[in-house]
Write a structure and sequence with these properties.
17% strand, 8 helices, 220 residues, single chain
Length: 220
Amino acid sequence: MEGVLYGGLPREAAKELRLQPQGSEEAKAFVSAFLKRSMPQKKDEAIQDVLTRKAVVLEHHCRRRKQPKRRKTKTFTAKQRRELRLFEIEPEQQRYELFLPLHELWKQYIRDLCYGLKPDAQPQMVQSKLLKADLHGAIVTVTKSKCPSYVGITGIILQEFKHVFKIITKDNKLKVVPKMNNVFSLETDGFISYIYGSKFQFRASERSAKKFKLKGTIDL
């Protein structure tokens, strides 16, 4: 056993490394001293028992790296957004033709969402997709309303909020139309869908995860 643990260093290797060869007793003393320093909590008898019975596994304590705390990103409050006028559209940009390319992008987006909008597509499938779709760029018309002045307004949706649509009309007027008590129609490649605004009072990000119940309603 000692021959395995304390094998002598060949003379050629010792000469090349410029080491003075040691005998078995010196090597044994060195190993014992090294183990005492490495395992101070163990007694000499325990160290000798380890040497004669099994391989030595030196203890290694790895330091846990402290994970840096995630910094919360600061966002603007609703008051700050209003003061900075982040959602206001400048008057010189309130032109219908400027947003026609946005409408073309929206139509392609809806076609991809509804698997091409083929003539044999199920209206229920198209309706369910539109309920969760992004409506920025869609052309809508107010077909019913408790306020007669809203009926007939047609234009491209520029902004959707929880309770209102901002719509640019063909005569370059920006209309703010509430969802409450209004019914909107939306036509896409021959498919006409109706949106009951009173049941549609969600933000666009909220609607994508909302489960709508497909049931008929007669309320505005």
